[in-house]
Design a protein that fits this description.
Blueprint: E1 2-6, H1 9-26, E2 31-34, H2 41-54, E3 74-77, E4 79-81, H3 92-101, E5 111-112, H4 121-134, E6 140-144, E7 165-168, H5 171-181, E8 190-193, H6 196-200, E9 204-209, H7 215-223, E10 241-246
Parallel strand pairs: 1-10, 2-3, 2-6, 3-5, 6-9, 9-10
Antiparallel strand pairs: 4-8, 7-8
The protein binds fructose -6-phosphate.
Residues 35-39, 78-79, 92, 144-146, 150-153 line the site of fructose -6-phosphate.
Length: 253
């Protein structure tokens, strides 16, 4: 497990944007797995700023800058609520669309999303796994950390060999997601998520952790036992996983 401890949220966002940018330059056809939530908002904002800047005309009429070409990237959205479709204010795919896909002018056809309205969610999950295999696997998987140690919607009790599937949200996740949607009653009870085995197959994982309220759980993830009760702890023996935390989140390590 590698560690990058950033001074604050802006520095964390900038360090993660650096990693995405260097991958996008080194491997233009890379596949990224991306979460929503509050933690990566700054990363996406900073990355989108760089993309826009890279495409500005050069001074002195020298044409355009060496713009970041994202037309060959593939993106997999980490998770989605069940029974929630595009256009619903709670749709996680729309959230990523607003924060990253549209600001970076990434073609919607390059973005894989779970269809929360699928009549056959189990089949949808199997197709998601197949789509990841088809592009040759995920190069870089970004993750946020839930207050109960969840990653994606892999709630406590999730097995390390779990694949994309329908899951029931834990009470703690419903409570913490309530802040996004104006109350716990607005939070769907089920979600579709990439599984822990799916995440562990990514060539590189960045676990982004910000804020004092994540300090205790981050300590459990890093220093406690590797256990299904703290799903993020099951990523610890991945050969290329980096915890990127700000100082507040890393305070108890
Ligand atoms: C989001 C997701 C969740 C969040 C986690 C942390 O797609 O899968 O696991 O990453 O709940 O959320 P924030 O960043 O809002 O604290």
């Amino acid at each position: 497990m590698n560690f990058v401890i950033a001074a604050d949220y802006n520095a964390l966002s900038s360090a993660a944007a650096d990693r995405i940018e260097s991958l996008a330059r080194a491997k233009p056809n890379a596949a990224l797995g991306l979460p929503t939530g509050e933690t990566p908002v700054g990363v996406y904002r900073e990355f989108a700023r760089r993309v826009r800047e890279s495409r500005l005309p050069l001074p002195l009429g020298e044409g355009r800058g060496e713009g970041l070409d994202l037309s060959h990237l593939t993106i997999f959205v980490l998770d989605e609520y069940l029974d929630v479709g595009r256009g619903d204010p709670r749709c996680l795919a729309d959230w990523l669309d607003r924060d990253l896909i549209r600001p970076c002018e990434i073609a919607p056809g390059r973005v894989h999303v779970f269809d929360g309205l699928s009549a056959e969610p189990t089949l949808t999950c199997a197709e998601y796994e197949a789509a990841i295999v088809e592009v040759g696997g995920i190069d870089l998987q970004l993750l946020g950390l839930g207050p109960n140690g969840h990653v994606g919607f892999n709630e406590p009790g999730s097995r390390p060999d779990s694949r994309s599937r329908v899951v029931r949200l834990a009470a703690e996740s419903i409570a913490s997601n309530a802040r996004y949607w104006g109350g716990p009653d607005r939070v769907p009870r089920y979600g579709l998520t990439m599984g822990l085995a799916t995440l562990r197959q990514a060539r590189e994982i960045l676990l982004l952790v910000s804020g004092a309220n994540k300090a205790k759980i981050l300590r459990e993830v890093v220093e406690g036992p590797m256990t299904n009760d703290v799903p993020a702890s099951l990523l610890r023996d991945h050969p290329n996983v980096t915890v990127m935390a700000d100082r507040e989140a890393a305070a108890d390590l």
